[in-house]
Amino acid sequence: MTTTVKQILDQKGNKTISVRPEDTVFAALSLMAEFDIGSVIVTENDHLLGIFTERDYARKVVLKGLVSKDVRIGELMTPNPCTVSPSSTVDEVMRTMTENRFRHLPVVDHGRIVGIVTIGDMVKSIVSQQEATIRQLSSYISGDLATN
Questions:
Q1: What's the CATH fold of domain 5-142?
Q2: What's the pTM value of the predicted model, to 2 decimals?
Q3: Are 125 and 8 in contact (CB under 8 A)?
């Protein structure tokens, strides 16, 4: 069975934490720490403008010697991020993440942000699928399944 992004969001929840472009990097980091997340969505009037991640912080703030309380998210966010839809499959999302070296992807449905998926979500889903396959094969081999 192919798992979709919608199924993953149904399991983990679809709450997204967003900031405005005029918010400081420090404010975004505070939210990321509070909610134990690795990224925030940047929005204005419920419209997706960008994404800001831990990697952005490390590369665009720390390595450049900037002060997080003095810099606005809009200056450092990744604008117009790649997105996936609820109907995207885990395989499709993994391909996109791997090819582009992304760890977080916003989920958009008809222009509306409905969640965010991470590389961790994808790995967890794949491991779960593999465990289910192993259980089925073990049951088959041990004769626990009825054969037709």
A1: CBS-domain (3.10.580)
A2: 0.83
A3: yes
